[in-house]
Every structure is written in structure tokens, then in C-alpha cells.
Amino acid sequence: MSFAWRAVLGTIMVLLLAMMVLVWAADRTLRRDLEQQTTADLERMARLVSASITDDALARQRHVRDLGQRNDLRITLIDSTGEVVADSDIPNPTITDIANHSDRPEVQAALAGDVGTARRRSETVGSELFYVAIPGGPGVVRVASSRARVDAVRRRSRTAIIWAAFLALVVGSTVAIVSVRSITRPLRSLSAAARAIAAGNLPRFPRSGVSDIDGLVVSLRAMHRQLEERFDELRQEQAESNAVVGAMVEGVLATDEHGRIVTANPAARKQLGYGPTDPIPDLPTLFKSKGARALVEAVMEGDAVSREIEIDGVTFFIGARPLPSGGGVVVLHDLTDLRKLETVRTDFVANVSHELKTPLTSVAGYTETLLTDPPKPEVARQFLETIRSNTGRMQHLVDDLLDLSRIESGRWQPQLEEFSPAEVVQEEWDGMTSKAGTGRTLVLDCPADQRLRVDPEAFRQILVNLFDNAIRHTEAASTIRCEIRPEDGLVRVSIRDDGTGILSEHLPRIFERFYRADEARSRIQGGTGLGLAIVKHLVEGHGGRVQASSEWGAGTEVSCWFPA
In 370-489, which ranges are E strands? Predict the structure, then answer.
């Protein structure tokens, strides 16, 4: 139901209720006044009757009957014992048949010396009467009037009042309809303007001529301006928040009070294995891990929790906080790489300690022998050669560690120069012939016009490490092949030997620091376990990549791709 109809019907209901109350009050007041007036008139008539009656019984009966007929009243004379001695409505012969009136309340009051009044149905005449009794005459003079006279006056007055009320109701309803329409028309326009504001459209504000509504229009205009400014601020803040959450490397999930995911940044989708548009299950069913489900239950119950949990092989530190409006926020920190780095660091310290401990122990042992029990000169020379060899091994290890640290720290930047790679390969191979021995042969396959744009010193270090590995893992009569070719917009440099090869389970890890596929042989031949790690970092520092392939018993090939 519209406001206009509500207002009109409300006004009509109020007017109708007011009219009903007015009619009821007027009728009640009129009845009370008529009854009071009738009682006063009856009392006055009773006193006149009391003053005019005689002691003669027949004369009293005639007098009472005449007065009663002239005034349309019932006049009754009652002695002190309650017996009726005269009655204007009862013939004289039958008066003795009337019941004793000593039990009538108005008679009892008059016998007691007061004015008695009553209203009831008369058992003698069979109609509703008003009674007034006073002391006088033979004992009591009672005058009664029919209530029908009062009721007739009330009906006429009530009819007049009802018609007047109906006329007032019609006039009031008409005025209410006109007034409400003059108010509701601009209110409907205001409602349309408010809907336009809610929909983000340009509102049209009315002019009503009603000061209160015009004031409301002014307030609504100001509210519209403030809302536009606030919405602009909120949109900007939301865009900034979305940008911040979207740029976070931590996964962020926000849920409502029912556990439904309402926000999931790209990092969270990637960590949980969902695409940008894939639907994400509700938070209580999202995780299969028991620890994660317990954390979710806690945050949905309003507790702030955080713990480290492993989910499908990935280590997460999950922090969850409830929201004041219900639901919660869950932040996923992927600690897998950090835990791997901690493991690598621990392994690195252990490996360095182990690599240094062996030569240091040897050096300390031989030194102590030379100092405490000097051997023969030829034996002493062997001891000193062993000490020098172990010292060189430690020096080589330290140099490799320094190179690796310099490359990994980011302080090293390649100084690019363009040159012929074939010449550099041949120079480095010639420099290692003393270590390779005359039985090993280098086969170089490189186009004559091939050029390479890399850091020459880094390229030489890469060749030295790859040639060193190839020499140490091949026999004296082996052939080492170096091939340099353009490939897919890059330049591929590969070195292949025909040595023992590497088992397939070791290939994914040979570029790790201190990792050896054949640890015993590598230690005997003096390897530090850092050569391929240095190669990998130098190639990647140029924006390239490195890959190893091998077959057990058939040799190993290490390929490096450099930007052309």
C-alpha cells in the first residue's frame, strides 16, 4: 500500500475514531444530564404532591390520579409500613393487591428521612421507570417517570450528532486527500531520485513548495554530493587494496560468516592449484590436511591462530584471524623454498667442514710427523709433497667458494664482448694438455664465422671447469668433443666425453654445490664438487641455461645456451 493511501486511510480512521468517541461522549453526557434533570423534576413534583394531598383516602386517590394523568407521571403514596395507600396508575379497589414496597430502595431511603432514587423495571406496571421518593404524606411520596421519554430525547440527539459527525468525516477526508496528494507527489519524486542515487545515475530533485520537503531536497542533494565523494574515495581505496593484495607473494583468503571464499588473491590461487577463474570450495572443505582443518575450525569459531603446516608436500606458515563482522582472513606463507635454503645452508656448512677437514687432518698429521720424528730426506720430501697437494686442494676449494659467493651475491655482472669462441676453446684446451695427457684428444666442431657475445673471462672459467670434469672422468686415450652451434636464436656450446657417465638418478642434482655422482673417485682426483655449480651460475648470469645428459658407460654431455 502506498504512502498516500496509508496517510488518507490513517486520517479517515483517526477522524472516524474521533467521531465515534465524540458521539459516545455526547450521548453519555446527554443521558446523564437528562437523568439528572428528570430526577430533579420528579423530586420537585413529589414535594408539590406532598404539599397538596389531604387526609381523605378517596380524595387522595382522585388527586393523585389527576396529577399523574396531567403530568404523565406515576404517583404513589406509601405508609410507614410500606403499604401502598394511593397510586395514580392503579384503581382504588385493587390497591390492596399491590405488594408491600418496604423493600424498595427508594422507599427505604425516604423512610429513613432522605431522598431516595432508583431506576428499574416496575413489577406493577411492567415498564422501565425512574423513581424519586421523599418523606411526606402518609409516610412516603414517590413519583415515577417512564424512561422511554429520556430514550426518545437521546435518540433524536444521537441522530443529529451522527449526521454532523458524518459530514465532518466527509469534509475531513476530502481535505486529507488533497493535502496528502500535495505531499506525496514530491515525495515520489524524491523516492525516484533516491533510487537513481542508489543505481549510480544522475538524480532529478523536485520542487514542492513545501518548506519541510524542500529542506529534505536540500539535505538529499548534499548527501548525494558527499556520497559521490565518499564512493570515489572508497573506489580508490578498494583499488589500492586490491593492488596491494594482488601484488602480495603471500596467499590471502577472506571468507564470510558461512565460510564462503569472497576474496582470493592470485598468489593464493597459485599456491592452492586453482586458476584465475576457477571456483574455490568453501574454507571448511578447502584443505584435506588435518592440521589445516583444525586451524580453519578455530578461526571460524572466532580464535586467532597461526602455525606451520605441510600440505601436499608444500610447507606453509598459515596465519588466520577472525573478522568482526563474521568470517575470517587466512594468510598463506609458502616456506618450502626457505626450508630448502635452510637445508642447503646446513648441507653447505657440513660439506665445507668435511671438505676442509680431510686435507687439514692430512696436513696436521704429516706436519706433526716431520716435527716429532724427522724421516729420511726422500720420505720427508714425499710428506712435503702431500702437504703441498692438500694445501693446493684447500686453496682450490676456497677460490671456488669465493667465486661462487661473488656470483650468487649479485655483485658480479658479465662484461660482454664479442669474439670467436673457437679460438678461446682451443687456447683453454692447450693450457690443460699437461693435465689431460697426450692420449686425450679434443675434437672441435664450430663454424668458422661463429661469434659469441659473452664475458670472455666467465666463458674461460666455464670451459676450464667442463674440461676439468671431462678429463677427470675419462681414460687417457679418450676423445673429448666440443660443439658450438646456433640453435633457436641462441648459441649452444656443448662438451661431450666418452667416460664412465652418470647414473640417471644423479643427473637432477649434479649442479648442486658439493654434489658428487661418484664421491670416492672425485675426491681421489681432486674435485671440489663446486665446478658445475659455478658453471650453472655463470651461464644463468648471462641469461642462458645449462643442461646435462648422460648414459652410464657411454659418457656425459653438458650443454650451455647463451643469448646470440
Answer: 417-419, 441-445, 452-454, 479-487
CATH code of domain 248-333 = 3.30.450.20
- pLDDT at res. 559: 93
**Could you say which of 3.40.50.1820, 3.20.20.100, 3.30.565.10, 2.60.120.260 is the CATH number of the domain covering 413-563?**
3.30.565.10
pLDDT value at residue 521: 47
Distances (CA, A) of 391 to 357, 371, 515: 12, 18, 22
CB–CB of 384/367 below 8 Å? no
Give the strands of the sheet with 128-136, arranged side by side.
Answer: 84-87, 74-79, 139-146, 128-136, 116-121
366-376 exposure pattern, b = at least 16 Cβ within 10 A, e = fewer: beeeeeeeeee
The Cα angle at residue 461 between residues 457 and 466, in degrees rounded to 5:
150
Residue 530, all three cell numbers = 663446486
Q: Which CATH number fits domain 339-406: 3.30.420.10, 3.40.50.150, 1.10.287.130, 1.10.510.10?
A: 1.10.287.130
Classified as helix, coil or strand, 128 is strand
Single pTM value for the model: 0.42
Share of the chain above pLDDT 70, in %: 87
* CA 184 from centre of chain: 38
For residue 462, count other CB atoms closer than 10 A to its CB: 26
- Residue 543, Cα to own-chain centre: how many angstroms? 46
